[in-house]
Specification:
Mean pLDDT: 92
Radius of gyration: 30 Å
Strand content: 5-15%
Low-confidence stretches: none
Number of helices: 13
Structural class: alpha+beta
Largest sheet: 7 strands, antiparallel
Number of strands: 11
């Protein structure tokens, strides 16, 4: 349904106002535009014309009122949002101006093209915003510095809080494709204190690396593509890795089933993993495998299936310029060292080195779950798998 045409009185008053602007008479233009908006208050362009006349006359309050009226009709009105950001900047309302400029930037990203004059206005707003962000960053750095000596958990949270408040870090929420367990902390990387057995795992890194090297020297059918999509799957972010050994895996256990072809050739690795508190769920866990990412390849950003688990990486062959991001934190693997993360928070990996990167990956229970909760989750999975064909 097409909107009703503006009243003739509004059109006439708007024409009068535009003529006054052309003649350099902002006061008369303001009077005319005020009549136009009174005749048709549902027309956003008339409110923007009124705001323009107010701006020429230095009437900040009048401009703000006219822009608010335009935005009440359409919050995505780019010009109105731009002029509001400029007004807030001009009148020294820094906090509100920073938020307004962030909104303008988001709207500008949707524009099919940007005229040179508009690009200059946006660049000026970005320069102003960067100055404010620099001041907030200094405040954030002072807060982080003041937390020196805090425990691992507190220091990590304080840093994330301060960085988020300063606008230099995004906070990611869990996104589970499968089972979601309520009320667990949305940790990106779990604190190492939750895994006292890391020392035992890391102590075996040398032996594990040796067994992997021997396995890769003659992998046979043990090595397979990690990504294997069903035939007919439409092109997607994973297509480049589909059926490719660019991201390859050698499974010791997969969905709780042992892989004798790998276990027999990696007995020390298998014995060490057997002694660890893996997530053991009939038909679902444990999962433990070697993961190899070739030079120049990237694993796209994605999320996992359930926050009831933690994913552990033990770095075996980690050349420089290999990175791993979980949420807002990026790390590099350190050979012989382990870390754990929540894979239901968006994560990605890349290998910008000139050789393959290898890690051992295994599933364990989310450390924020109690033993009783782990039992309940395992019982649910077992019962639900039996109840559905």
């Amino acid at each position: 349904m097409q909107p009703a045409p503006p009243p003739a009185a509004a059109l006439a008053a708007n024409r009068e106002g535009m003529a006054a602007l052309d003649a350099g008479d902002a006061a008369s233009a303001l009077t005319a535009f005020a009549r136009a908006t009174a005749a048709d208050p549902s027309a956003g362009p008339l409110w923007k014309n009124l705001a323009h006349a107010c701006r020429l006359l230095g009437d900040d309050a009048g401009e703000r009122g006219a822009l608010d009226s335009a935005l009440a009709l359409d919050r995505t009105d780019f010009v109105a949002q731009l002029r509001l950001a400029q007004l807030l900047q001009r009148t020294g309302k820094e906090r509100d101006a920073l938020l307004a400029w962030d909104g303008v930037r988001q709207l500008a990203a949707r524009l099919p093209e940007t005229a040179p004059a508009l690009a200059e206005e946006l660049a000026a707003g970005e320069l102003y915003s960067n100055g404010l962000r620099s001041r907030l960053a200094a405040v954030a750095d002072a807060v982080i510095a003041s937390s020196a000596g805090a425990g691992e958990t507190q220091a990590r949270r304080i840093a994330a809080f301060a960085d988020h408040a300063a606008g230099r870090r995004h906070v990611y929420a869990n996104a589970c494709a499968g089972l979601y367990y309520p009320f667990l902390p949305a940790d990106e990387f779990f604190d190492a204190r939750h895994f006292p057995w890391f020392a035992e795992l890391e102590a075996g890194a040398g032996a594990i690396r040796s067994e992997l090297d021997a396995l890769l020297a003659a992998p046979g059918e043990a090595l397979r593509p990690y990504i294997r999509q069903e035939y007919g799957t439409p092109p997607n972010d994973w297509s480049a890795l589909d059926g490719s050994l660019d991201w390859a895996a050698c499974f010791l256990w997969e969905y709780g089933a042992a892989n004798p072809a790998v276990i027999e050739r990696c007995p020390q690795t298998a014995a060490l993993l057997e002694a660890l508190p893996l997530a053991r769920i009939p038909g679902r866990g444990p999962n433990a495998f070697f993961s190899m990412l070739r030079a120049g390849k990237r694993i796209p950003a994605h999320t996992g299936v359930t926050n009831t688990r933690a994913i552990v990486h033990l770095a075996l062959d980690a050349p420089p310029r290999c990175g791993f991001r979980v949420g807002g934190e990026t790390r590099e693997w350190v050979e012989g060292k382990a870390f754990a993360f929540d894979d239901t928070i968006e994560h990605e990996a890349w290998n910008d080195s000139d050789r393959s990167r290898s890690v051992l990956i295994l599933d364990v229970w989310n450390p924020h779950l109690s033993p009783r909760e782990c039992e309940a989750i395992a019982a649910y999975f077992e019962a639900s798998d039996k109840s559905l064909a």
